[in-house]
């Protein structure tokens, strides 16, 4: 049964990535930067299905504008794509980095932030970690 769950999550992730138009699509952020989708990952931690949208924006640096950028990516990019999949996630995690990196591997040369959002009433609600 676990393999079936993993397969569903993998296929849903593929659908999300394919529905992403193209990973080369530039997404203008509120901060003025342009982000591009790196990848979409799915998993099932203890509290339910999670989709991780990983974005890259050249020139990204941590600033006060980062939460606005992450919220915008959740509301304007991730949320519309969730309606095209079967199982709905409990949370969406949005990450933004200055260059591509491998998920789960620490790279001191990459500046990266991520935030978790719950989905309530058709909106992304920021959760404090």
Automatic annotation (TrEMBL):
Pfam families: DUF6497. InterPro entries: DUF6497 (IPR045467). This is Acetolactate synthase. It comes from Roseovarius azorensis.
């Amino acid at each position: 049964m676990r393999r079936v769950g993993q397969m569903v999550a993998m296929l849903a992730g593929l659908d999300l990535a394919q529905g992403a138009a193209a990973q080369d699509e530039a997404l203008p952020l509120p901060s003025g930067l342009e982000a591009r989708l790196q990848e979409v990952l799915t998993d099932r931690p203890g509290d339910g299905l999670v989709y991780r949208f990983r974005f890259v924006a050249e020139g990204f640096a941590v600033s006060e504008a980062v939460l606005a950028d992450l919220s915008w990516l959740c509301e304007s990019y991730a949320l519309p794509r969730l309606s095209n999949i079967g199982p709905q996630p409990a949370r969406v995690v949005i990450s933004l980095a200055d260059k591509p990196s491998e998920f789960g591997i620490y790279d001191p040369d990459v500046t990266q932030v991520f935030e978790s959002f719950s989905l309530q009433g058709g909106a992304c609600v920021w959760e404090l970690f």
